[in-house]
Amino acid sequence: MFQFFKRVKTVVGSELNAMLDKAEDPVKMLDQFMRDMEADIREVESAVAKQIANEKLLQKKVEDANNMASKREEQAMKAIEAGNEDLARRALEDKKIHAEQAASLQESYTRAKNDASVLRQKLDEMKTEYNQMKLKKDSLKARAESAQTRTKMNRTMSGIGSDESRGGFDRMEEKVLQFEAEAETSEDMRSSNRSLDDEFKELDNGVDDELAALKKKMGKA
């Protein structure tokens, strides 16, 4: 009847720790445990509702049987006053039947009432346990998410400045140096390919400019 406590004990017992030690995602596992507990609570709530309904039904039957016994007793008294002892005897016989039914039903009602009380108490205990576990779950969930975030950040940061990253930078630096060397080499090659005439042309152009400047200075322009 109270198999619902099995799941509750699973959550608060060593099996929870075993689950968290394995490869399962703790956040997902904690959410699943809470769903299991919620399902158990709904199951017990349904059982409590049925038991309370049964208790009220038996109470009504006890009241009806007692009322009928009282009614037959009053009818028997009226029959005696009317001088009809046979009718009074039959009324008392029926009263006895209803009184016995009432006594039997009273026992069933008492048991049903006690069972309902026990179920309500167990349900209250489960809800209290659930609320405590919900608070614990929220705390564990936050800690798990924080730990996962820190792990991810640490793994990312550990890659910065690693041998692989430094090696990549070194390779890129070598390429830049190679590009610069190639550029300087191309400029040297361009200079070496100039003809002797080109060089004299530059020299002549320089003399002509200087001669023109000198004439201007002397007023001979």
TrEMBL record:
Q: Which PANTHER family match?
A: MEMBRANE-ASSOCIATED PROTEIN VIPP1, CHLOROPLASTIC (PTHR31088), PHAGE SHOCK PROTEIN A (PTHR31088:SF6)
Family (UniProt): Belongs to the PspA/Vipp/IM30 family.
Q: Which InterPro entries match?
A: PspA_VIPP1 (IPR007157)
Q: Where is this region: Disordered?
A: 138-204
- Biased region (Polar residues) positions are 146-159
Tell me what this protein is called.
Phage-shock protein
Recorded source organism is Jeotgalibacillus campisalis
Question: What start-end ranges are recorded for coiled-coil regions in this protein?
Answer: none
